[in-house]
Specification:
The complex is a heterodimer of chains A (166) and B (186). Helix content of chain A is 46%, strand content 23%. Chain A is an alpha+beta fold and 166 residues long. Chain A has a 5-stranded antiparallel β-sheet with strand order 2-1-5-4-3, with helices on both faces. Chain B is an alpha/beta fold. In chain B, α3 links the parallel β6 and β7. Chain B is globular, with a radius of gyration of 16 Å. The chains are: A alpha+beta (166), B alpha/beta (186). Chains A and B meet through α1 and α2 of A and β2, α2 and α3 of B. The complex binds guanosine-5'-triphosphate (GTP) and magnesium ion. Magnesium ion binds next to α1 of chain B.
């Protein structure tokens, strides 16, 4: 992780958290096991999406509280903070929406666009596992198309995990 | 007013307790599984965590100003969100766990961290220690004074309960008041 923390990790009393992307040590041990197995399931879905669309520059799948599960096209050093920021952006957008309309963020998306470059975040709820955010960064594509493709990818992640549980 | 401090100390709780408007919070459910232990060895039962920023307002009854209160995330990985809030030159309340034997060391870590980029933080900060009523071998409120004085003279120090509106109001009052003297209040 590129962030620097003076002294030891905050709120975690022993050891360094540098190896685990800024996650408190006591959480990291647990999280490591789950994220590895979940990552193995989700990674092929991300790879397939990227192979079918040359516009995709990066993909990210993280928990709604900002822990990385898997990524594609993201520099190692950026994975931790990108996951954390993804959850921050999504949560702040959800709070913003709640002021206007209290219907929650199910099926809602968050977009950041500049010309033909888009970052799109969608919520993915995996029953029994929790809430996640799937994010894509793409260039030279229409926003609507990217949104459709990203939603399809979210559905595929959902189906793949459900199939495994049957 | 910006609330900082470790995961689960009660920053969001304090924003909710003191706010007179509906709180815009950015708490989400934490990732499973929840078998983890806290660093004091207790089971980690916290179900939600702040990942963005909380916003509330305290409307003083005395006709005084409205105080906007921001709660920041406690977890290390949200450094960028936290530092954005901390760098706004606003008054800060650092909420700390008081019930652990390592409480002073933790206070030291947080103080050092918050002022790492800007020593001016020490002129804007107030320290609010929670859970001092819990049993066990932990420092008393006065024991923090020596540490605080090493950072800056007269950093306000209060014992406070984030669940209690009046207690949070006292912490805010200590933080907005003029910075004179170094007496301990509670
Ligand atoms: N016993 C005790 N419990 C407290 C006290 N203050 C807060 N709590 C509880 O501790 C928990 C604090 O949770 P939050 O307010 O979400 O903590 P936070 O600091 O916002 O945590 P993050 O956003 O995850 O960094 C709540 O369940 C409170 O009820 C206290 O003084 N004593
Ligand atoms: Mg919080």
């Amino acid at each position: 992780m590129t962030q620097q923390h003076p002294g030891t990790s905050l709120g975690s009393h022993s050891g360094s958290d540098d190896a685990i992307n800024g996650i408190e040590e006591h959480i990291a041990q647990d999280w490591d096991i789950l994220s590895r197995s979940l990552g193995l399931f989700v990674q092929p879905v991300l790879t397939e999406f990227a192979e079918h669309s040359s516009h995709i520059k990066a993909l990210l799948f993280c928990t709604s509280d900002g822990l990385n599960v898997c990524t594609l096209g993201v520099r190692d050093n950026d994975v931790g903070r990108l996951s954390a920021l993804t959850s921050s952006v999504f949560s702040v957008a959800a709070a913003h929406r709640k002021v206007m309309d209290d219907r929650g963020m199910d099926n809602a998306t968050v977009q950041i666009s500049s010309g033909d470059d888009h970052t799109v975040l969608v919520a993915v709820r995996l029953p029994g596992l929790g809430n996640f955010v799937l994010g894509a960064y793409a260039e030279g594509i229409q926003l609507g198309l990217l949104l459709v493709q990203l939603r399809q990818t979210a559905t595929r992640i959902h189906e793949r995990l459900s199939a495994d549980r049957r | 007013m910006v609330f900082c401090g470790p995961l689960g100390v009660g920053k969001t709780t304090a924003v909710r307790a003191v706010s007179d408007v509906e709180v815009a919070d950015t708490d989400v459910r934490r990732a499973p599984p929840r078998r983890s232990k806290n660093k004091d060895g207790s089971v980690d039962r916290k179900r939600t965590t702040t990942v963005g920023i909380d916003y509330g307002e305290w409307h003083r009854d005395d006709g005084g100003a409205k105080v906007a209160v921001y709660g920041t995330p406690g977890q290390v990985r949200f450094e960028m969100v936290r530092s954005t809030a901390v760098s706004q030159k606003l008054r800060l309340v650092l909420w700390l766990f008081g019930q652990n034997d390592y409480a002073i060391d933790e206070a030291d870590e947080w103080l050092r961290y918050l002022g790492a980029k800007d020593k001016g933080v020490y002129d804007r900060i107030t320290v609010a220690v929670t859970r001092l009523d819990e049993p066990g071998d932990h420092p008393a409120l006065e024991d923090y004074r020596e540490l605080l004085d090493r950072y800056a003279p007269g950093i306000p120090l209060v014992a406070a309960d984030p669940r209690d509106r009046e207690s949070v109001q006292r912490a805010i009052d200590a933080a907005v008041g003029p910075r004179v003297g170094a007496e301990v209040s509670s």
